[in-house]
Amino acid sequence: MPPEEFANAYTCFANAFRPFADRVFLQGDAGETYTYADLERETARVANLLTGLGLQKGDRIAAQVDKSPQVLFLYLGALRGGFSFLPLNTAYQRAELAYFLQDAEPRLAVCRPQSVALFGEICRAAAVPHLFTLGEDGRGSFPDRLEASVPGFSDVPRAEGDLAALIYTSGTTGRSKGAMVTHGNLTSNAEVLKGFWRFSGQDVLLHALPVFHVHGLFVGLHTVLLAGAKLLFHRRFDAGAVVEALPHATVMMGVPTFYTRLLAEPALTRETVRNVRLFISGSAPLLTDTFHAWRERTGHAILERYGMSEAGMIASNPYQGERRAGTVGFPLPGVSVRIAAAGVGALAAGEPGEIQVKGPNVFAGYWRMPEKTREDFTPDGWFRSGDIGRFSGDGYLSIIGRSKDLIISGGYNVYPKEIELAIDALPGVLESAVVGVPHEDLGEAVTAIIVLREGGKLDETAVIAHLKSQIASYKVPKRVRFVRELPRNAMGKVQKNVLRETCSVD
Questions:
Q1: What is the pTM of this model?
Q2: Is residue 305 pLDDT above 60, yes or no?
Q3: Side-chain half-sphere CA neighbours of 365 within 13 A
């Protein structure tokens, strides 16, 4: 195959699993079972339908739908047909959705049946020509149209640098950025993870993660596909159901919240996890207490790793060797990581600085934001993560802070500026600051600190109720504090480190 026709990501995955057509690909929590042959058939139907609608290579397909096997077929079918997938968090509300569809200009959108009226309005405003529905039960106008679609399809070749997915990450100014993830990004990262975490066709991954997120859609799914392994597919995380399923799994991926909630289940024992070879945690910092409590309870050391939308997986604790609590291990094979400071360059072990990344996993840039792309890459080609970290003397990477004040709550990225803008617009508010404070279950809890104008009469209940109608639920503060003034340094900048130290969610 000529280099300009690098096989698209789906083809790379399919070349690995096609020899195992009769093997079970997915066993769902609603009793459904799909083989790899079924996966081939359903993705072919999707690719044929999209092509028949007149979509061209590279056209975006947006989806805000509940988790179901059909979402995986939609995503993989889009890749197979040469299109680009835009997954949208199910918590996003009208203003957020309107921005994404206006910015990405998808040619087709898929939504939950109960959201069709809202999406109809947004699609008309954004000139999106095709709108379908897909429910958690796998029913809707999209699967209805698929019934007449042909179950065979020749994969569309794509170049390594062609857009495969558009992942929106919130910006500190309130404007979200679309990270352009390429076919090469997806395949290179998946190959590395399969080998590093030793996935094989004998593995069974317990999948309770959302599929609008890099963790569940890329990391969990792609490693399984390359290994010809099996998914135990749970539509949502339920601690009791997960404990019941663990004896049938060999691997589980989760966010720290999963592990804290599982530890509260009396049925979680060493016998329960007797067949599990690997527990992986990511998307948020894993508390050292959780790491030690899990090892004491189950005998397993959780493998913590580090990644982000713009670079997939970057670092991981070792499969063999010490999995060190409070660290994310070493850079993955083929991925380069350095700790750097402006005007200084790379820093020595033990010195904190910005984490910068280079490798085939790093995204192509931000959608229609060339200035932002230039800003976030160094002149010598390293991606500036915005995270602050340091290497130990023996090479373990620790994340010690986040520039840009990013909060990670329950595995989701939350940027304070977006919430502060919504709070500051409320009558009676003089100013606000939003920070993340340690939380046993969520990792970090969103907390708002508000200064009222003279005579302002807002209370915590009113602020939270208003925000719930404006932004996704995971961004809404768990607590709201009222103060007379915000702490500032000599330059007048709000000292959020002071607020984090003095706030709690108790």
A1: 0.84
A2: yes
A3: 14
